[in-house]
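Appendix C reproduces, verbatim, an entry submitted by the partner laboratory led by Prof. M.T., so that reviewers can inspect both the input and the predicted structure.
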Amino acid sequence: MTAPNRLDIQADEVNQAVDEKVRGVTVKVMLSPFDVPQSASAEFDKARRIIHLVFDYIGGDEPTVERFSDRGISLLVGKNSERLYGLDINVANFLPLLVGDKNKEIEFVINVAEELVTKYQEKNPQVRSKSFEAVNRVLKQYSSKITPILQQVMIGA
């Protein structure tokens, strides 16, 4: 059974084979299962007014470091693996937006998160983990399921 603020992710939905040219030959490639989150969950830190959107992977978690922050969202990256373990969303930056249609506003926050993940990847091509790509796929494909989780967490905001 899934907890109310947790979403199980189907790896086969996120990790589709894509064609890629390798030395002139087209091959089908997939992400490593270790880079595809198994679940996503959210919690609200009332003291800091931050929503933590956390991604869980095969092999468990590890200490994280903040690698990038922009527009009120910080990316939390595994210290050793460089996997994207979480997004910290500063509610104060988005609270003025969250007074109208909650679904549209939370979708906006998810879109901003997608943009930041992509921006980090572009600025840091040396990052070996493909988890950023996997998380972006999760944010796109599961946004309609992530939205109610964030709404539930926002009740505490």
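The radius of gyration is 16 Å. Additional entries are available on request from the coordinating office.
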